[in-house]
Specification:
two-stranded antiparallel sheet; single chain; 172 residues; Beta Polymerase, domain 2; alpha+beta; six-stranded mixed sheet
């Protein structure tokens, strides 16, 4: 899998579960172990683990390989090893404490624009437009799967005769 595509998949997976302060660092000139390092913050240990699992799942679904994942037991800092890319998902306090951005100060920040979100927004708008039809009077009528269709026959109020047939008790 190409590096740019892999990074895009990772960033999209992080954005799906509301990671914040996502930074992509180009460390190819600093180390030969990997080319990119992605650092993202989460608000809780549960979110940290969920973000790492989502990255792992999306990369595998996209045809990439996951070489390892560490730290999911505590959830403060989860590391996902994807070969050419290393992903650090950290709680905000842990990220501030370890300050990886300063440790890798010689790395350039890579600007990644995720096209997935933009495509999803355009698709949602297009679907919303197709659901709205103009009615002859000019008012808009919204088609929805959850729309309730009117009954052909109206409901009849329960009478004593229907109560005895269905063996329901008499009201008090």
């Amino acid at each position: 899998m190409k590096l740019d595509k892999l990074v895009t998949i990772i960033v999209a997976a992080l954005e799906d579960i509301k990671a914040h302060d996502i930074r992509v660092l180009n460390v190819a000139g600093i180390t030969t172990l990997f080319d990119r390092m992605i650092i993202a913050s989460a608000d809780s240990s549960r979110q940290t683990v969920a973000l790492a699992n989502n990255v792992q799942g999306k990369v595998r679904a996209g045809g990439g390989a996951v070489f390892g994942m560490e730290g999911e037991e505590t959830g403060e800092w989860v590391l996902v090893d994807l070969g050419d890319v290393l992903v650090h998902v950290m709680q905000t306090s842990t990220r501030i404490h370890y300050n990886l951005e300063d440790l890798w100060a010689g790395a350039d920040t890579v600007d990644v624009k995720v096209k997935v979100k933009a495509k999803m927004k355009v698709k949602a708008k297009a679907e919303a437009k197709t659901k709205v039809k103009k009615v002859a009077g000019g008012a808009a009528k919204v088609k929805s799967k959850a729309a309730v269709k009117p009954r052909k026959t109206p409901l009849k109020p329960a009478t004593t005769a229907t109560r005895t047939k269905s063996k329901l008790p008499e009201p008090l």
